[in-house]
Design goal:
The structure holds 2 protein chains of 2 kinds. Chain A is α+β, with helices and mostly antiparallel strands. Chain A is built from 3 helices and 8 strands; from the N terminus they run βαβββαββαββ. Chain A has a single domain, classed as Molybdopterin biosynthesis MoaE subunit (Aldehyde Oxidoreductase, domain 3), CATH 3.90.1170.40. Chain A starts with 9 loop residues before the first strand and ends with a strand. The chains are: A alpha+beta, B alpha+beta.
């Protein structure tokens, strides 16, 4: 469904598997859908200078990010025949192995859902004012750079 | 004229603050010069600047209550 105004995409800490399952379940009544595509970003335990990442702490310019996500969404709906799209990004601390980004697109047939999901993820990474700080076991940190 | 400055990512480490209230700056060049004087490490930092949530590429006039955001390269997801 198209939205009329920006929606808050941010949730505190990790995206729980239960939340993702529930989100999938809610689509059961939309019987025009034939395909879902889901991207899940998970926090990796990178080793940097012999120190292991234990989590990422996310901050964002929330208003601008929500507004930009609204524009991305408009573009994607314009470009692909999708039925719906849901995006959630973590704020605050997310531990390694936990989910920090959940992008979910649905369409009658598979190709638009897959392509829309991929393009949305790429645009989120490039265009949303969100920053991750990789935290190590000793609580030291470095700002994430790998976009 | 009061200007709100929002500071994100590693720039907040450099300045030690995530926001500033400044007065009497009429454009973004003036404001950035001032910040470079206050925080010399900012000169080397790579970042974009947004005025009222729009990223700007050139010097931009500020108005009463403008919000200027300093945005290091994004690293979400």
């Amino acid at each position: 469904m198209k939205q009329k105004e920006p929606k808050n995409i941010f949730i505190r800490n990790a995206v729980s598997p239960a939340f993702i399952a529930e989100s999938i379940g809610k689509h059961g009544e939309k019987t025009g859908i034939g395909a879902h595509s889901i991207f899940l970003g998970q926090v990796r335990a990178d080793v940097i200078d012999n120190k292991t990442v234990t989590g990422i702490e996310y901050t964002a310019y929330e208003d601008m990010a929500n507004q930009q996500m609204f524009l991305i969404r408009e573009d994607i709906f314009e470009k692909y025949p999708i039925t719906c799209m849901h995006v959630y990004h973590s704020l605050g601390r997310v531990g390694t192995g936990e989910i920090c980004l959940f992008v979910f697109t649905s369409s009658p047939h598979r190709k638009p859902a897959i392509d829309a999901c991929e393009e949305t993820v790429e645009r989120i990474k490039k265009e949303l004012p969100v920053w991750g700080r990789e935290i190590f076991a000793d609580e030291s940190y470095q700002w994430k750079k790998d976009n | 004229m009061s200007i709100n400055v929002l500071i994100f990512g590693h720039l907040a480490d450099i300045t030690g603050k995530d926001s500033l209230q400044l007065r009497d700056f009429h454009d973004t060049d003036q404001l950035i010069d001032h910040l470079n004087n206050l925080f010399p490490s900012m000169k080397k930092a790579r970042y974009a600047c947004a005025v009222d949530q729009k990223i700007i590429r050139t010097n931009t006039q500020l108005r009463e209550d403008s919000t200027v955001a300093l945005l290091p390269p994004f690293s979400g997801g």
